[in-house]
Amino acid sequence: MNDGTFTLMNLLSLALPFKDFTGTDLQRHYDNEMRLIRDLSKNPNLTQPLTKLPAKVMPYFVITHVHELDQEEQVMMLSGSLTLMWLDDRLEWNMSEYGQISELSKSRFGSFGSRQLKIWVPNVHVTDLSSKTEAYLAFEKAELLITNSGMVRATVNLNIKTTCSFDVADYPDDTQNCTFSIYSPLAADVFQFTRFGGVVIPRAAPAVDVADFVVDRIDSSSMYLAGGYVVVKNVEKWRKLAFLRSINRYNIVFKRKNVYYRHMAMQMFCISAAVNVIAILPTMKAVVLLLMCLMAQVLHAIYLFGQLPPAYVSLPRIVQVGMFLMLETVLLMAWRSFCIHFRQHYEVSKKNWVDYITIADTLVIFSCFAFLIFSAFILF
């Protein structure tokens, strides 16, 4: 179909009679919304806590982007959205009485009747290093949606900076944990997080990996605290809920991608292979080449320590292999120098030692290649 055909079809479509299918319906829908908002706002207690206490609130957290994971400062910065859902029977209505309207969004009742309709929203805080006392969820900040069944859904965007617990004992196969919590200052007899809920990373998220790490999984758990630090597992047996606070904890587990490690390990393995091949040479050139390999190992060690995690208790495996490789290179230089010196000065006078040195040299070469295979197994 060419461009002329498309043009003809467009002209014919313009010649068709136009009928307004939406004007009257939109006006009727608007009138029903305004009437619903006025009827709901007649209840003066909508901004007070729910009539049925405790309020059961289901949390749902979505991570959209991890901005930073600082291994030295042990902090993480991420962006996401927190959604809370709860039932408020004061906000129920019969759809048949209001033109089959099933939901109200804040963009509707906030724009047309913000002074008439304000509802109760739980006071929720986040254990954020940058703002520990700020209430993230409030009527003015949240995106609200109310359904005819009384279900309220509140969503707020978050930028969180929180602490992490770094342990690189298993480097490069280590995993790191970053934890933050949401809580309310309201007592557990007024407010409780449900055990149902969760956390998710959308497929269209811009990035959930940072530096050498990628998000492996996210754990969510609901618990109660007594006195601010005592964890109460069985809340049903706790007599005075007024002394408890409900919190929901999120633990983000990061797994190392080993991009930098593979580069460093491959460089070290190539140096090790060169050392073991050069060790076969029976000439003085082998000593010179081994000395050059030793210098290359020193430069690689400087680069290696610059790339390793800043806080480690025990030496990582790649460092241990590098130390053994440097020791092996020094011993091979000494052994090759001894063999060359012996053959030049004592091969004739001490013929009975030649066979022993030859056997020892063969064992040294086999040991070098055994170490090469072992280092490959350790590094990769």
Structural class comes to alpha+beta
Q: Shape, please?
A: elongated
Overall number of structural domains: 2
Q: Radius of gyration over alpha carbons?
A: 35 Å
Spans of 5+ residues with little confidence (pLDDT < 50)?
1-16, 111-115
The CATH architecture of the largest domain can be given as: Distorted Sandwich
Q: How far is it from the N-terminal to the C-terminal residue, by CA?
A: 59 Å
Would you list the SSEs in sequence order as H and E? HHEEEHEEEEEEEEEEEHHHH
> How much helix is in the residues?
25-40%
What do the pLDDT scores average to? 79
Total number of beta strands: 14
Individual helix count:
7
Q: How does the major sheet shape up? A: 14 strands, mixed
Quick take:
With 380 residues, this protein is an alpha+beta fold. It is built from seven helices and 14 strands. Residues 1-16 and 111-115 have low confidence and may be disordered.
